[in-house]
Amino acid sequence: MTSEVRVPTLGESVTEATVATWFKKPGDTVAVDEMLCELETDKVTVEVPSPVAGTLSEIVAAEGETVGVDALLANVSEGDSAAAPAAAPAAAAPAAEAAAVDVMVPTLGESVTEATVSTWFKKVGDTVAQDEMLCELETDKVSVEVPSPAAGTLTAIVAEEGATVDASAKLAVISSGEGAVAAPAAASPAAAAPAAAAGGKDVENAPSAKKAMAEAGLSSDQVTGSGRDGRVMKEDVAAAIAAGTSAAAPAPAAAAAPRAPSSADDASREERVKMTRLRQTIAKRLKDSQNTAAMLTTYNEVDMTEVMALRNEYKDLFLKKHGVKLGFMSFFTKACVHALREVPEVNAEIDGTDIVYKNFVHMGIAAGTPTGLVVPVIRDADSMSFADIEKAIGEKGARARDGKLSMAEMQGGTFTISNGGVYGSLMSSPILNPPQSGILGMHKIQDRPMAINGQVVIRPMMYLALSYDHRIVDGKGAVTFLVRVKEALEDPRRLLMDL
């Protein structure tokens, strides 16, 4: 029986890719989910796994060819011969009694090529049930739990905690059946040997990376590769050019040198903890945002009296009818949608020398989690009701706190709301979430004396901050946007009347 290997979904707005590297050749035996080839798009690199165990019988799209989504790449003939390599570790035991099952890195998501093993829940020799959680992987966006593919005994852990693994790596070995025996000493060195050998072989760099290096006058030893086995990718060349190749060479050694404590006594009271991949990514993206956008912030304040009164009046009825609490975020989301219609450049983004206006609102709602800040996206918020928005915010927030958000749920946002008020912040300047051009910062509601119609009265006030990209949003547009948000919140009837 022959199974087709086709181009997978490449991601939002990506319609074609170039076949960069074939890891197998016709006649090679392949295991299920073993990487066959690597595709390269203008945004990401995608590895294509084998859908079945068998033999690679034909390569249809050769290296260097451009292929579209769902195009045929190769054919794999299913057969018993493919099972032999996977079963080899268990050859010493009777096949009927025990079978070795590899635990592989699961699909990590679009554009994610590696992960860090953060925690093992089981140790070698432990008995595991099928689908029981074995370990947790951490990527620069999400945490991924790895279940056991079979019931049996954990006989070998190949990737220890802290190890960085690629999207096709083996994590562990499960021996299923009555004859399963733990053998960590024999399995680990054997698994490590191929990895060590791979590091010493010549690695073919991506075609686009070669072209970019030639244009920039760089050699491959001046660029640090992030691809499979250290393969240099297009984005690696761009990073090397941005950093400046003359300064890039000594930088790793200098960066690697730990900061010396001021005294031995201070050293004994310090704790050094490696940044998580998520925290490293947050740091990089925020610094990139500062370096790229012409970011400014404008401020205003809003009297929350009317919103609080409306919420108090209808919150019980709202909960009874819709099964979700009525919070402030739905009011702010509606107010922002209202303002974005009038000032569309705040909802736009820059792409090269073009401005891309979005005729929809995918609202990012920043959420703090134990591992860092994430921004789940509520799609088409402009067409949602108050109840729909509250339900979406509640569901996304719970998934964020549990580390269950997928990358797709954090991509494609057009505008972001960040609520520092839940932590007690009175005023701050939020930083842009690129490539977006605007972010609204909410803050603590605090009673303050205000002059109303010639009288000093106490009102619940909140400072608002809009950070915006001045390359695309003028000061007039930013101020107008914030004033429209203020007006809609101080008189919520405007949202109903579209005023």
Automatic annotation (TrEMBL):
Domain Lipoyl-binding: 2-77, 100-175
Signal peptide start and end residues: none
Chain segments carrying region Disordered: 207-229, 251-271
Catalytic activity, as annotated: N(6)-[(R)-dihydrolipoyl]-L-lysyl-[protein] + succinyl-CoA = N(6)-[(R)-S(8)-succinyldihydrolipoyl]-L-lysyl-[protein] + CoA
Record domain Peripheral subunit-binding (PSBD): where: 204-241
Broad EC category: transferase
GO cellular component: cytosol; oxoglutarate dehydrogenase complex
GO biological process: L-lysine catabolic process to acetyl-CoA via saccharopine; proteolysis; tricarboxylic acid cycle
Superkingdom field: Bacteria
Coiled coil location: none
Protein name: Dihydrolipoyllysine-residue succinyltransferase component of 2-oxoglutarate dehydrogenase complex
